Amino acid sequence: MARNRQNLNIIYISDRMRETLRPIASCALTAVVAPMGYGKTTAVRWFLAEQAKAGAVVLQASIYSDNRSIFWKSVQKAFAVAGLTVLEGYDCPADASDAALLLEDLCAALGGKTPYYLFLDDFHLLGDERVAQFLCRLAYRLPENVHLIVASRNRFLPGEQVVRLGRRLHRIEADGLRLNREELLAYTHRCGVEITAAQAESLLRSCEGWFSAVYLNLHALAERGSLLQLGSDIYAMFTAAMLESLPEKTRGFLAVMGLADEFTVEMARAVTALPDAEEVLRALTQQNAFVTRLPDGVSFRFHHMMKECAERLFAQLPAARQTEVWQRYGRWYAQKAQYLHALQAFEHCGDRDAALAVIEADAGDLLASLSPAELLQRLDRCPVEALQRHPLAILVLMRRMFTWQQIPKMMELKALLEAAVAQHPEWPAAERGNLLGECDLIQSFLFYNDITQMSRLHRSASRQMSRPAVTLRNSGSWTFGSPSVLMMYYRAPGELGKELAEMYECMPHYYKITNGHGQGAELLMDAEAAYLQGAWEKAAVLLERARADAAGQENMTLCCDFLALRLALCGKGKEGYDFAAKRAALLQKHDGVQVHLLESIAAYFYALQGRPEQAPELFREHKLAEVSFFGPCRPMMSLIEQQVWLAQGEYVKVIAHSEGLLRRCEAMHYGLVGLQARIQLAAAQLRFGQRAEARATLAAALLDAVQDDFWVLFVEQYPALAPLLEGEDWAVCEPRLGPFVARILPAGRAFAVRLGLPAPAPELPLTDRDRELARLVAGRCTNKEIAAALYLSEGTVKQYINQLYAKLDMGGDPRTRRARLAEWYQKNAPRN
Fold this sequence. Notes:
Blueprint: H1 15-21, E1 29-33, H2 40-53, E2 57-62, H3 68-81, H4 96-110, E3 116-121, H5 129-141, E4 146-152, H6 159-165, E5 169-173, H7 174-177, H8 181-191, H9 197-207, H10 211-224, H11 234-243, H12 248-257, E6 263-264, H13 265-272, H14 277-287, E7 291-293, E8 299-302, H15 304-315, H16 319-335, H17 339-349, H18 352-362, H19 372-381, H20 384-388, H21 391-403, H22 407-422, H23 429-444, H24 451-464, H25 485-489, H26 496-513, H27 521-532, H28 536-549, H29 554-569, H30 579-588, H31 592-608, H32 617-620, H33 634-647, H34 651-668, H35 671-687, H36 691-705, H37 712-716, H38 718-727, H39 737-754, H40 768-778, H41 783-790, H42 794-807, H43 814-828
Parallel strand pairs: 1-4, 1-5, 2-3, 3-4
Antiparallel strand pairs: 6-8, 7-8
Helix pairs in contact: 4-5, 10-11, 11-15, 12-15, 13-16, 16-17, 17-18, 18-21, 21-22, 21-23, 22-23, 23-24, 24-26, 26-27, 27-28, 27-29, 28-29, 29-31, 30-31, 31-33, 33-34, 33-35, 34-35, 35-36, 38-39, 40-43, 41-42
């Protein structure tokens, strides 16, 4: 007989379990893996409560589905409850590079003396290998005071990660959680339930130390005086022990609230329509270990075993009652801006109008977390009449279809919108104009970088709209992460004048309907063109005007910085730019797109100076495949990567990758990116010894560039192209090229001298001293040893060696050039 039924909910942690939990405090990652009901959550939470008493900060997040967006919000909530703001504004990492930025910020924010514990429960429900990989990367990087605990029914760590983590990993599995005979007896005694030796043996035999099964049997013993029948599955055991004796109101409460992941008293009152929902919940919490209050102090959750049984109860309710409950859930979630939960609730009850209203309220932000297939299936189930009652939702869905490149579906939605407007002449004229105008705006994205077509649609949208667009946020990257407006919108040689005129005409209309998204773009494009034409003063003035217009838009400000740095390299602007400080400021905004944009600017800047070792790791180590760049900016990123390869002396890489880049530029009408890629290719071919091919490539680039007078492009590449530019009569190829190249040469020489990059001149004869230098370098002598051997200063030796590199047309970093010089000497050393 039970001496005190309330003691059935007592937390029992055996001495053996305490020892099993102890290593959590010294390991970066603890993986707790066992089937449902083995007490994983209870044991970890007991341990965390003990750590909290000692001053540790505890963060707990539960997982309820495979939706990464919902999981991420749960993690953000856990940090917020603990008073930590480091995750505010961060999206769930979409690629390895975003994950690296988050890791950097997390480790900086959490490092110190205060112990931090982050507990992720029910990880098996997420089922996303990318998250498991991220957790492993996090475990490698975590400071010693930070500990990650992950509970799952299934093993989630890849085998190679277990090996790599080594002592940083602590594993607790089912055998460590089972109750043995002594622990079972101690547990029953602590609960106040006396059992006989025969009952103890029966429990051990039937439950095999499974905590939940033992608990349910003790409940049945205290309630009915007998253990549960052998052979019952866990859900039948749960129903018999925990549900059958409950009052009807309580069972109804469980049936309804079992659908929620987490809930508050306020939510329970709204969804169940029970005025005394708080009293019902309090009684359940006191009597049932499967109902727990969460660390925030106001939220509750059901154990998954109880949720499963509650959902079975819900399935027995009349269909009308089920529909009513789902609608209550949907309305609650919608009021709290939990739009994904609201969509799921309205999908369950088939309330299409309510679901479309949620899509309108969300404006497409959270729809991105749904898979394209899932959203398309929902659209197919939605009646046309319901869609046409929600024209704003149609616009939101059109925008999402464009992002996913579901263009036929996008055009199908456009036709629906136009039909809806035509069928409702009674709608106010302003509303009709706003709908049709925003439809034009969304359709304009199909003509990306065709300014003529985009301008036509933007003007049409501007004429019709009396409010800004609801489907476009002006905080997004206007250039898709590209550092240059001109690279995006210069389509073909000879078209510059027309394109600039259209930009000046088009952009005011676009700004009007997007709250100034991309403000200053037309001025910046004009400034970039002036820079490439050597109109330095004009470029500087236009740049400052663009910067003033772009104030408050980080994307455009960074593009202004890109041009300012190029001007500075040519001696026409202010020098000195603190990349580290700028990066630190961008990290505080938690915007990976802007960070990668800054990294691309830095990579180009350092590569032009012949200092690739200072380029950001993303470009220096060529990890661009790890970043989910927007499609429109990928060719620009590839172009900058090739500039880094040139500076590193990786000429074969440039030659090999140029063909694919030029093909993409042609398909996307990226005339300027293609032109710069051909200039890079000519430089690589020349350095690789393919002079004839380099001359042909350079000639084609010059013929294109002369049409819009873009001669400064060749100044930036002069150190690599000097032998060709200086050694050929380009007027023979085309009369216009004579004066065109004549402007390049003096500016190029000055550019090379300013950066300390003497232009290579392979035609110059080698002296005896040059050959002696090559012999000593090939013999792996240091500059100090060479200076001693030749009776020179180290500074003079360095100057002579640089001149030798220039004569032999050898570029790249110091180590690469020394290796190439040694290889050259081995091939050209005098034979005895």
